[in-house]
Design brief:
There is one protein chain. The protein is mainly β. The chain is built from one helix and 15 strands. Strands 1-2-6 form a three-stranded antiparallel sheet, with no helix packed on it.
Amino acid sequence: QKSGPGTARRKACRTLPLLAAASCIQVGSSDLLSATFAEHVCQGEDQEFGKCAPQPPCKECTAIDCVFSAWGPWYDSGGCVGLMFRHRAVKVANNECGTPCVGSKIESIKHEKAECAAEVRDCVFEPWSSWSTCASIMDQAIRSRGVLHQPTVDGTPCKGDLRQTRPCGGPQRQD
């Protein structure tokens, strides 16, 4: 049985020393071998690997390398995402001995539409919630906040915590 270039594999049933006279049979279509002899079971397999005899060369392969098509035109994807895209496709696919294509099939660039860039808005957080109630001095109090307004493309991004904790015992944070 061939298992790869230059190697061969042979399977045989593994017999137990007590069953020197037992023979093994194949069970169904699986690779496990098993037999019963005088209420004893022989099962398992041994595998032996070795070099194959020289094989005739495969048919000659003429390399066909992958070729991309030309890039398509830039297009706007709609909305105010701030990007434009262009695509290309595989014009010629490589064969088994050819070189595969390397590179992306889609590119993007920053592009702000005039109607989208008119408003610059910075991130705005919601006010902090009240601190949670402590059940014991070993507990922690928690407060949270969310983002009220996400920033636009040129706005200042959100910086800061969305959740804070403080110990219930010891000095208290008063902010």
